[in-house]
Structure to design on (284 residues):
């Protein structure tokens, strides 16, 4: 097709932010940090390399995901522990905050709830920012490595990708069969993963994660959470993300309980206030 005469003018139109987030409720970071200082550890889960595990975080508690033995990325799912139909909504989180998350930003839940599930209160990799390739860490653009895409592209039957790891972990935790558990597994927060889009083709890329043992991402649970974390079979994702040969390491999840009075001024988020009438007369 021929190039239109005004092609350059059309391309030069300035972009508009779809969801200006100035009116988003601000997380009370000082309250959270003060509560965290006196919080005591209550539990931990060591997620094996190339596998996944579930963990529980009560509302008002904190959880930390740490690199403990070597550079390793993790795929994180979150659910409302009392209603698994409310789950992390990576697409809307991306629309509200951007392609990668860091301190002060939130993981939002699915419709019709659309409320904060967890708030990032500390990120030892926040120094990384955006590199010259357009890469950054903790992305909400990649969906998770899965056996279906592997089969589509390479005819493979690989069972220890993050989708399958999360499915097995949720099934084991809840007693669901595999097919039911799989229906609840959703797009992830790619913890520690360094990703972006190529400038020329717009393709999703990964590169070696800057994470090192001792680095962590710490979050505050806004509601009762059931989490599942997969230690990706790609290790630090410097070469491939579904691999039996890439060096892989466990990830540590720790849960911390604040003092009983530490969050007296904090108010738990309510479900979204939209009336759900969808333009039909009468309100629900």
């Amino acid at each position: 097709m021929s190039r239109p005469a005004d092609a350059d003018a059309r391309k030069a139109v300035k972009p508009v932010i779809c969801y200006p987030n100035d009116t988003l409720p601000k997380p009370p970071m000082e309250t959270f940090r003060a509560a965290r200082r006196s919080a005591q550890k209550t539990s931990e889960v060591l997620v094996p390399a190339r596998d996944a595990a579930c963990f529980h975080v009560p509302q008002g508690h904190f959880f930390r995901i740490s690199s403990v033995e070597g550079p390793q990325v993790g795929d994180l799912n979150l659910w409302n522990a009392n209603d698994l139909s409310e789950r992390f909504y990576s697409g809307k989180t991306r629309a509200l905050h951007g392609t990668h998350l860091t301190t002060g930003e939130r993981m939002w839940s699915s419709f019709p709830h659309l409320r904060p599930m967890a708030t990032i209160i500390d990120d030892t990799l926040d120094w990384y920012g955006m590199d010259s390739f357009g890469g950054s860490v903790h992305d909400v653009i990649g969906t998770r490595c899965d056996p279906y895409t592997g089969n589509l592209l390479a005819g493979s039957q690989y069972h220890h990708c993050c989708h399958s790891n999360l499915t097995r972990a949720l099934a084991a935790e809840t007693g669901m069969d595999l097919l039911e558990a799989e229906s609840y597994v959703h797009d992830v927060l790619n913890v520690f993963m360094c990703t972006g889009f190529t400038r020329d083709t717009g393709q999703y890329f990964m590169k070696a994660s800057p994470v090192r043992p001792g680095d962590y991402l710490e979050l505050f649970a806004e509601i009762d959470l059931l989490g599942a974390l997969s230690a990706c079979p790609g290790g630090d994702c410097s070469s491939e993300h579904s691999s039996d040969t890439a060096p892989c390491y466990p990830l540590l999840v720790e849960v911390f309980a604040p003092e009983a009075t530490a969050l007296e001024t904090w108010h738990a988020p309510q479900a979204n206030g939209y009336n759900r009438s969808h333009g039909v007369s009468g309100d629900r």
The chain has a mean pLDDT of 96.
